[in-house]
């Protein structure tokens, strides 16, 4: 079935067509391996969602998303829909552990529920992070038997925490507590012990050690890792902490892509959305617009685990090689500020 996507603002390219409005950014190139029997290459560029600009009507393009499998979750068409999808994934996954008496038992130590959500931000400012966190968690539809759910927001630095306190101050008192990650182990134990859910907001890789200590102190409360600042490809280099990072199951993530050849250019997205709380049952999907029809997206590959940059490149390389007789040098152009694939890149 096809659904109308929002009209997207055109930037420096002939057209911009992704699941959300995406802006061009500074990029870093990564060359693909050469293939002796092929002369075809592709170029990828990632994009970042933002609110539509006030551009003239003739500079906007309306697109659709066509997915034949109705069981597959469609990529978001607006920022608001992305937030709703993420909230739905979170609330469904959290509902069971919040109301599961086994987690509070002392006979057998249960696995601590740990989840991960990644929604790209327009920039790395504290205001962007706090506004997105507010939109996602302010009215998250989760319930606990006989008591309201208390959410502990763990901010990456004092500036972000101050901004967060200001944004959340209009909500009912006691539903949200705020602490700063570096000082989390020195706060009153009441704050940690009373948390039903803890959310680590945009932590850096340098904060992983203290993040693990805080996570252990919060057991058995469910944890949410929200927009980590490191790149997915970095995680193998975290040593003993790699396993800790891998223990957070991705519930929701997406990344806009542009596939460029010498004679053609196509748009797409890497997307995962867990809807029923069963993380293992949802695949990572790579969608690309239909050839000759920039208004349609189709699934071109699915992965059981999160695909690396190289794996996505290889899928799209072969796609472009089949459909285009001549293409340009193959590169993966990483987004400056995409929190789906990772950290901010330097000039």
TrEMBL record:
One of its GO terms (cellular component) is chloroplast. It holds the Pfam family DUF1995. Residues 76-313 form the DUF1995 domain. It comes from the Eukaryota. This is DUF1995 domain-containing protein. The gene is LOC110693137.
């Amino acid at each position: 079935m096809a659904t109308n996507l929002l009209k997207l603002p055109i930037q420096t390219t002939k057209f911009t067509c992704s699941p959300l409005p995406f802006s061009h950014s500074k990029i870093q190139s990564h060359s693909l391996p050469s293939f002796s029997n092929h002369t075809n290459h592709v170029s990828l560029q990632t994009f970042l969602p933002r609110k539509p600009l006030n551009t003239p009507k003739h500079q906007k393009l309306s697109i659709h998303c066509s997915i034949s499998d109705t069981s597959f979750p469609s990529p978001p068409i607006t920022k608001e829909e992305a937030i709703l999808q993420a909230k739905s994934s979170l609330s469904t996954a959290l509902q069971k552990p919040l109301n599961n008496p086994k987690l509070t038992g002392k006979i057998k130590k249960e696995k601590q529920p740990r989840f991960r959500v990644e929604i790209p931000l327009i920039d790395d400012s504290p205001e962007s992070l706090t506004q997105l966190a507010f939109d996602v968690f302010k009215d998250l539809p989760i319930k606990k038997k006989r008591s309201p759910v208390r959410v502990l927001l763990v901010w990456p630095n004092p500036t972000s925490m101050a901004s967060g306190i200001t944004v959340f101050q209009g909500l009912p008192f006691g539903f949200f507590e705020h602490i700063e990650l570096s000082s989390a182990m020195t706060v009153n134990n009441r704050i940690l012990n009373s948390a039903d859910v803890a959310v680590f907001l945009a932590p850096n890789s340098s904060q992983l050690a203290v993040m693990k200590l805080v996570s252990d102190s919060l057991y058995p409360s469910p944890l949410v890792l929200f927009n980590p600042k490191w790149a997915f490809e970095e995680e193998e280099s975290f040593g003993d902490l790699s396993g800790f990072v891998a223990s957070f199951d991705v519930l929701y993530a997406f990344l806009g892509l542009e596939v460029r050849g010498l004679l053609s250019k196509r748009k797409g997205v890497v997307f995962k959305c867990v809807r029923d709380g069963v993380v293992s049952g949802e695949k990572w999907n790579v969608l690309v617009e239909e050839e000759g029809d920039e208004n349609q997206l189709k699934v071109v590959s699915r992965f059981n685990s999160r695909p690396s940059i190289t794996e996505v490149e290889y899928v799209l390389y072969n796609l472009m090689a089949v459909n285009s007789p001549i293409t340009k040098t193959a590169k993966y152009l990483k987004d400056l500020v995409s929190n789906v694939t990772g950290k901010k890149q330097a000039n």
